Amino acid sequence: MPSPSENDGISLADLSATHRDLLWVLSQTGPSESGPLHHALDDYYTNGIDQARVCDTLEELIEHDYVTKQTHDTTKYRLTESTRRALSARQAWQAGTRNAEGGHE
Questions:
Q1: How many domains does the chain have?
Q2: Residue 5: inside a domain, yes or no?
Q3: Residue 17: pLDDT band by 50, 70, 90 thresholds?
Q4: Can you tell me the distance from the alpha carbon of 16 to that of 6, in angstroms, rounded to the nearest whole number?
Q5: pLDDT digits (tens, 9 = 90+) for 26-42
């Protein structure tokens, strides 16, 4: 997981489901514009999700250094390296490959 100095001290566990879902989509798609990210989440959520909420969530993730925004001809969002490591650690935790003390089983 990120160190306390990274991501303003906010761990993945402290994020909302929408924030984590958006990070997951970015981890699967790679750098992406907000439109495809919105469509991916809209397809996933039973009641859909508003495009403005996706954009607001992206901005919050940028503020906490989980995501970077690159603007050239288009605006693309990408995960930071510390976020990639945090997601990998979360996946390992979810898969049960770490015991309660944080070591490998």
A1: 1
A2: no
A3: very high
A4: 18
A5: 999 999 999 999 999 99
Strand partners, 104: 98
Assess if residue 31 is contained within a domain. Answer: yes
* Parent domain of 57: 14-95
CATH of the domain at 23: 1.10.10.10
Whole-angstrom Cα distance, residue 16 to residue 35? 21
Nearest to 67 by CA among 5, 4, 12: 12
pLDDT tens digits for range 63-77:
999 999 999 889 999
Cβ within 8 Å of residue 22, ≥6 positions away: 37, 41, 54, 57, 58, 61
Distance CA 102, CA 85 (A): 15
Positive or negative, the CA dihedral 40, 45, 48, 51 is negative
Residues in the chain: 105
